């Protein structure tokens, strides 16, 4: 089915674009903001290309009107952004409240509402206040109440206008990259233990914030609340071999199910995790499983704490069975599998992130089956491409096409699609080397001018722009003919 035949039906769905505070705001110490673990890390590490940091980034803290203007021009229905916790509470707690930080977000939210753009607000997108890391960050169960109080403040302060809350962005990345691999702050290298402890606390912190919203705010404010989980699609190396299919399912459970199973199913970890980590721990001679367990009371508290399913998706990996080594103790080895690139798909600028659009359709169907047909929002999807924005246009066209097949043909209850990213941004460990923006930002210019990329270019003969067309009408622009495709490819 061509995408043209399925356009027009999705006009009222939530089409949007995303950013996050540390990636775009800059103003790292402006107007009383406290440092976050990303400020500390980027200002001291030499592991990021060009020693880049987010001190200024896109300078969105000082360029709010430009951002609002661009969003309006994009004609998106929603804008997903995150709040910088340490801009609001410089030391992470209410007693340090920084009114100027609150004012900034009030101006942003009011500006969006004035333009009829729905704010989708992530409460925590990795930039933990440094002061909280000093008391062990997410390893410390005290964070559950501290996070809850921060969320409570945000619901009370912004919830009259914000109707879509996301508690935590990609807890799996926080647990594994922050505490297992240790390549992201707080740079704890402990692959076998602390990722599980941190994930345990993150799940409980999410659940507590959900209940606070549910108990205190939902009735009056009428919004919804969820968590953004990252999920690759894991394709079995051979679909005809049962063991490979089971292995791919296990890969899904270790990445997505680690968080989604407790929250969307029964308050507990998937059997694959309990079984694998429990058995390995036993063979490793440990007195108990490295995977902590929830009490019955905790399971009841966690179960059902998301109103919709929010998923961030970038790529597909091929997996095959492997009897992994027992040492070192590691979440990665606990999975008993090997990952490789999908061989037949185009590359993007980032190694390991091939553009495998069909994987999105399979992922959406897997979520539908596994979690009882929830309403799904794709809260991030995008690609870094080397030079030519034409490839990005093709990426979006192909991925949105597959998402629409899942919606139209498979009956997946897809409610929204958010493209990443609004503009070129600080891309974490990649610095400014690999960029996802629909707008180019000149990071060498102190004014940080933003320029629409090819996909957003407007002209007399090509209105409206390609990306706007894809995001707004959910279709590739009609002028985007085979001839224009060939012209671009031959450039
Ligand atoms: C993060 C985004 C980031 C993207 C691309 C995702 O995992 O949530 O903040 O822009 O990766 O680097």
Automatic annotation (TrEMBL):
InterPro entries: GH, Glyco_hydro_1, Glyco_hydro_1_AS. Pfam families: Glyco_hydro_1 (PF00232). Its EC number is 3.2.1.21. The active site is at 380 (nucleophile). Keywords: Glycoprotein, Glycosidase, Hydrolase. GO terms for biological process: carbohydrate metabolic process. It comes from the Eukaryota. Transmembrane segments: none annotated. The keyword rRNA-binding does not apply. GO terms for molecular function: hydrolase activity, hydrolyzing O-glycosyl compounds. The keyword tRNA-binding does not apply. PANTHER family: GLYCOSYL HYDROLASE (PTHR10353), LP05116P (PTHR10353:SF36). Belongs to the glycosyl hydrolase 1 family. Homodimer. This is beta-glucosidase.
């Amino acid at each position: 089915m061509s995408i043209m035949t399925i356009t027009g039906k999705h006009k009222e769905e939530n089409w949007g674009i995303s950013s996050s505070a540390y990636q775009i705001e800059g103003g790292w110490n402006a107007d009383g903001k406290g440092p976050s673990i990303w400020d500390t890390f980027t200002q001291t590490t030499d592991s990021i290309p060009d020693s880049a940091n987010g001190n200024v980034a896109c300078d969105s803290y000082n360029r709010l009107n430009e951002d609002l203007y661009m969003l309006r021009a994009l004609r998106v229905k929603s804008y997903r952004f995150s709040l910088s916790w340490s801009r609001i509470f410089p030391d992470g707690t209410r007693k340090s409240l920084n009114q100027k930080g609150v004012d900034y977000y009030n101006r942003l939210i009011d500006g969006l509402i004035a333009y009829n753009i729905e704010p989708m607000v992530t409460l925590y997108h990795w930039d933990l206040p440094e002061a909280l890391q000093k008391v062990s960050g997410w390893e410390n169960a005290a964070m559950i109440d501290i996070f809850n109080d921060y969320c409570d403040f945000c619901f009370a302060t912004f919830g009259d206008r914000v109707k879509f809350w996301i508690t935590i962005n990609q807890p799996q990345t926080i647990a594994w990259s922050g505490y297992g691999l240790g390549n992201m702050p707080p740079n704890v290298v402990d692959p076998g233990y602390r990722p599980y402890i941190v994930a345990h606390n993150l799940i409980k912190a999410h659940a507590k914030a959900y209940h606070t919203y549910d108990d205190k705010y939902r009735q009056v404010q009428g919004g919804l609340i969820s968590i953004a989980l990252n999920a690759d699609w894991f394709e079995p190396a051979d679909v005809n071999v049962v063991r490979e299919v089971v292995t791919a399912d296990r890969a899904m459970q270790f990445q997505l199910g680690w968080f989604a199973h407790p929250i969307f199913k029964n308050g507990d970890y998937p059997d694959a995790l309990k079984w694998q980590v429990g058995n390995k721990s036993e063979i490793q001679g440990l007195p108990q499983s490295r995977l902590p367990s929830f009490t019955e009371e905790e399971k009841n508290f966690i179960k059902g704490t998301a109103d919709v399913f929010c998923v961030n998706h970038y790529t597909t990996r091929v997996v095959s069975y492997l009897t992994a080594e027992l040492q070192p103790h590691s979440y990665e080895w606990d999975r008993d599998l090997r990952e490789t690139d999908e061989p037949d798909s185009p590359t993007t600028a980032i190694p390991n992130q091939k553009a495998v659009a069909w994987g999105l359709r399979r992922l959406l169907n897997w979520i539908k089956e596994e979690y009882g047909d929830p309403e799904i929002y794709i809260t991030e999807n995008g690609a870094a491409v080397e030079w030519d924005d034409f490839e990005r246009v093709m990426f979006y066209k192909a991925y949105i096409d597959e998402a629409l097949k899942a919606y139209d043909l498979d009956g997946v209850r897809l409610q929204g699609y958010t493209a990443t990213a609004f503009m070129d941004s600080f891309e974490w460990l990649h610095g400014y080397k690999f960029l996802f923006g629909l707008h180019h930002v000149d990071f060498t210019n102190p004014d940080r001018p933003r320029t629409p990329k090819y996909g957003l270019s407007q002209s007399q003969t090509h209105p409206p722009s390609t990306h706007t067309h894809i995001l707004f009408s959910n279709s590739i622009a009609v002028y985007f003919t085979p001839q224009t495709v060939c012209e671009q490819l031959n450039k």
